[in-house]
Each structure stands twice: as structure tokens, then as C-alpha cells.
């Protein structure tokens, strides 16, 4: 084979670029530069504003963190509190209790009767029935009452099971959450912020 018959794709591409008029190449370079500026501008702009928002959110959640120890209700009212508690429950492999409670809260808001029935079955199969994939820790009697409630599903059909799960979390997991290192860190951070604010006033 002669060297003339060998075709290199990179060489062909370079020749094609070389054949282009210099004006086209300059325009392409100019376009690339402008595109780079456009791509970087929002990134920096969003970075600073999102940092401010993130800082504000952290301040709010650290302030809220002090309120979570007042009562379990106070914790459940706070979105960041629920998130922090859920993260803690994961470490204890018991997050299904909170997930069930949240699913019941969402279930109560359902207005459509057909959706109510299908949601009720789905929640029961996931959390309540024996050997459910994410079975919550409730007694046999409560489980059977909930099963019977499904035949005429209403927004109240999980009330007893939800109440039992809530009590379990409040008496068992919640005190451990308040003693956990992660929560202690949050409260220390919030307390130091409050003290530094007072010292500046």
C-alpha cells in the first residue's frame, strides 16, 4: 500500500478547517467567547444569590432547631425538623414510622373517593399488613381494625394506626433524637448565634 492511499480523519478535519475563510474562523472564535461569558454569568450570579438564600435557610433552621425540643408537635410542624428527624431515623433503620405518618397526613387531604380507596390500599400494603415491605410496629388488634376500615375507606381509616405510630416515635425515637450528636451540634450552633447577636447589641 502506498502512503497516499492512507486517510487520516484528523488530517482531513485540519485541512477542512484550513480551507475555511479566516473571517469564518474569527466569527467562530468570537461566538465561542460570547457563549463562554453567557454560560458563566448566570452561574456566578446564581451562586451568590443561592449562597445568600442558603445562609438564610441555615439561620432559620438553626433557630427552629431550638424549638424542636419544646415538643414533638413542634418538630413535626417544621419541614426542616421533619427532614432532620427522618435523617436520624434512617440511622436507626426506623424511618418507615415517619414515612407512614407523613403518608397518612397526605392521605387525609385526599378528596376524591376513588383516589381515597386506591391510596388506602397502597398505604396498607406498604406499611400496615403483616410482612409489608416497610411494616410499622403496631399491635395485631390495630392492624385488624385498619384492615376492616379499608372496606369503606374514609380519610379517618388510618387514624388509630397513625396515632399508635406517632406515640411510638414520641416516646421512643424523639428523646433519642434530642440526645443525638447531630441535634446537639445544631442547637450549639443556634445558641452560639443567639449569644453572639446579644453581645453585639
TrEMBL record:
Keyword DNA-binding: no
A Pfam family the protein falls into: RGS
GO cellular component term, pick one: membrane
InterPro entries membership: RGS (IPR016137), RGS_sf (IPR036305), RGS_subdom1/3 (IPR024066), RGS_subdomain_2 (IPR044926)
This protein's UniProt keywords: GTPase activation, Lipoprotein, Membrane, Palmitate, Phosphoprotein, Signal transduction inhibitor
SMART domains given in the database record: RGS (SM00315)
Membrane topology term: Lipid-anchor
RGS domain residues: 71-187
GO molecular function, one term: GTPase activator activity
GO biological process, one term: negative regulation of signal transduction
Record-linked SUPFAM superfamilies: Regulator of G-protein signaling, RGS
Coiled-coil features, chain-numbered ranges: none
Subcellular localization, as worded in the UniProt entry: Membrane
Highest taxon of source: Eukaryota
Annotated function: Regulates G protein-coupled receptor signaling cascades. Inhibits signal transduction by increasing the GTPase activity of G protein alpha subunits, thereby driving them into their inactive GDP-bound form. Plays an important role in the phototransduction cascade by regulating the lifetime and effective concentration of activated transducin alpha. May regulate extra and intracellular mitogenic signals.
Protein name as catalogued: Regulator of G-protein signaling 16
